[in-house]
Write a sequence for this structure.
């Protein structure tokens, strides 16, 4: 994984990002570059602004200071926001849509026609191994299956950047580690850039190429840990992985 | 499993037939002991029913009433939905107009009918107006309440895919409000249908309500009974043949079915199908 291409334009580049809510400085002076194909974790105590930073990176939340560039293009003139997918903490499956229609939901904001949407939704469902339940309703699925459907919905739009806000935090540990390997497998296949927020150091170490640690008051980057040297696949019982998790927990 | 369903169905059918038989018997017995202008027997009512069916004005009257009800209900649906969405979208607007809604809900349909006579005289507009004034607040209230239950998380989801306002309205607000709208509209249609007859008795020169009053004036009690039977049958057909199947299809996602898949307790806040509380001051 040390073969990250650092000489092309960053997939996402934030410069001097600041955000205030009233008199509270949530983020100040954030400089961050995420490179194509990289998996980056944002960690830190609650209130450090990591979710706000993720929302700013998604373009959904305008920053109060600083600039954002996507693949070298300033956010103001960027036109392909549909290539940036966002995965929420909850699966947010629409209960009135079948599994297939939920996966196709994001595609309805694109130019793709009905047949194309259907094809891409089915393909995304196949990638997460759920084509058998395409016609089921969300409430008929288990938590892990719902999470996979949410992942398929994000992948169906074929994003170049996938942003995730503690996406697996509500799953049981076993299902969560299944989702981790699933995510890494799909990420390797598509080459998408992934930025995710987590409070779980184990999750951060298992998934990320780099971990960005933030601290509150105001929200700022205090450390960037490069994990590209850590061999994959990483299992939480591997001594090198455990050691890295321990180090991070001590500092966090 | 396979044998209990027809048995349950047969039991229910037998119960219904028994109930119908008891009522018919009581009716027949009562008719024997009362003058026929008070309570005509089943035989006289059946004769009146056939006479009515074959009379030349029958089709015209039914069509006239249906047209007025559907027109009033249709306008009420459009106006009530738009106003309900507007109130649901703006808290300030809702606070400002809320007292007005209470006023609309407390004014009796009979009073609207009298106003309608004064304003529109004997015309279609009278009945349409009364149906509208009865149905519109009910639809407005249910759409407004439905708009308040729209899950902000789903709106954010649509926004994360960069959907336009129109798309959010169609793909998130629409399906979230639909159950509330459906129960409100059903109630509104029932009320509208009933008050249309009241309006027609005083404000029109044809239609079912007008014929009912004519029959009452001429003490043709058997005709009044015949109309009643027809109306009940019509409502049952609309309910069982149109509304129930439509509801079952529209909200099929709420019932777990389709074989035995792994069913897990879902954590999403699915909007409940319970009918919204609606003011009950119609008359």
């Amino acid at each position: 994984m040390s073969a990250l291409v650092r000489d092309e334009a960053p997939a996402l580049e934030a410069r001097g990002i600041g955000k205030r809510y009233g008199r509270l400085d949530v983020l100040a002076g954030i400089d961050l570059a995420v490179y194509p194909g990289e998996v980056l974790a944002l960690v830190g105590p609650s209130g450090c602004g990591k979710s706000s930073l993720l929302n700013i990176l998604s373009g959904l939340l305008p920053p109060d200071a600083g600039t954002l560039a996507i693949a070298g293009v300033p956010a103001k003139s960027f036109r392909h926001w549909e290539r940036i997918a966002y995965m929420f903490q909850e699966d947010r499956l629409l209960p009135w849509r079948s599994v297939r229609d939920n996966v196709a939901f994001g595609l309805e904001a694109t130019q793709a026609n009905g047949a194309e949407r259907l094809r891409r939704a089915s393909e995304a469902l196949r990638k997460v191994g759920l084509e058998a339940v395409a016609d089921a309703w969300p409430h008929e699925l288990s938590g892990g299956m719902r999470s996979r459907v949410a992942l398929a919905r994000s992948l169906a739009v074929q994003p170049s950047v996938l942003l995730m806000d503690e996406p697996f935090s509500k799953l049981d540990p076993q299902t969560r580690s299944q989702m981790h390997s699933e995510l890494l497998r799909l990420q390797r296949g598509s080459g998408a850039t992934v930025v995710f927020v987590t409070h779980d150091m184990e999750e951060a170490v298992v998934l990320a190429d780099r971990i960005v640690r933030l601290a509150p008051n105001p929200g700022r980057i205090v450390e960037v840990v490069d994990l590209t040297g850590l061999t994959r696949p990483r299992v939480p019982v591997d001594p090198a992985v455990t050691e890295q998790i321990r180090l991070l927990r001590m500092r966090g | 499993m396979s044998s209990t369903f027809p048995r349950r169905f047969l039991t229910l059918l037998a119960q219904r037939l028994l109930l119908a038989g008891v009522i018919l018997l009581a009716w027949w017995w009562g008719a024997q002991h009362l003058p026929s202008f008070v309570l005509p027997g089943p035989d006289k009512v059946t004769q009146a029913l056939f006479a009515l069916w074959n009379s030349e004005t029958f089709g015209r009257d039914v069509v006239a009433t249906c047209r007025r009800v559907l027109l009033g209900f249709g306008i009420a649906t459009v106006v009530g939905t738009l106003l309900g969405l507007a109130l649901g979208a703006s808290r300030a607007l809702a606070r400002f107009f809320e007292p007005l809604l209470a006023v609309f809900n407390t004014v009796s349909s009979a009073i609207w009918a009298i106003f309608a006579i004064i304003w529109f005289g004997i015309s279609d507009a009278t009945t349409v107006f009364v149906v509208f004034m009865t149905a519109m607040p009910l639809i407005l209230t249910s759409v407004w309440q439905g708009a308040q239950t729209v899950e902000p998380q789903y709106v954010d989801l649509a926004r994360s895919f960069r959907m336009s306002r129109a798309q959010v309205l169609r793909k998130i607000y629409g399906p979230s409000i639909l159950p509330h709208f459906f129960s409100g509209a059903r109630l509104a249609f029932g009320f509208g249908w009933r008050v249309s007859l009241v309006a027609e008795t005083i404000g029109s020169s044809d239609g079912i309500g007008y014929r009912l009053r004519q029959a009452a004036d001429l003490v043709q009690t058997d005709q009044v009974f015949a109309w009643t039977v027809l109306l009940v049958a019509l409502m049952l057909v609309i309910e069982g043949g149109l509304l129930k199947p439509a509801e079952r299809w529209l909200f099929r996602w709420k019932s777990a079915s389709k074989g035995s898949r792994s069913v897990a307790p879902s954590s999403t806040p699915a909007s409940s199908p319970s009918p919204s509380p609606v003011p009950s001051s119609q008359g």
About this structure: The interface with chain B takes residues 58, 60, 81-82, 85-86, 88, 90-98, 105-106, 108-109, 133, 135-143, 145-146, 157, 170 of chain A (CB under 8 Å). The domain at 12-90+160-251 of chain A is CATH 3.40.50.300 (Rossmann fold). The helical segments of chain A are 50-57, 99-104, 114-127, 143-156, 173-190, 201-207, 239-251. The longest helix of chain A spans residues 173-190.
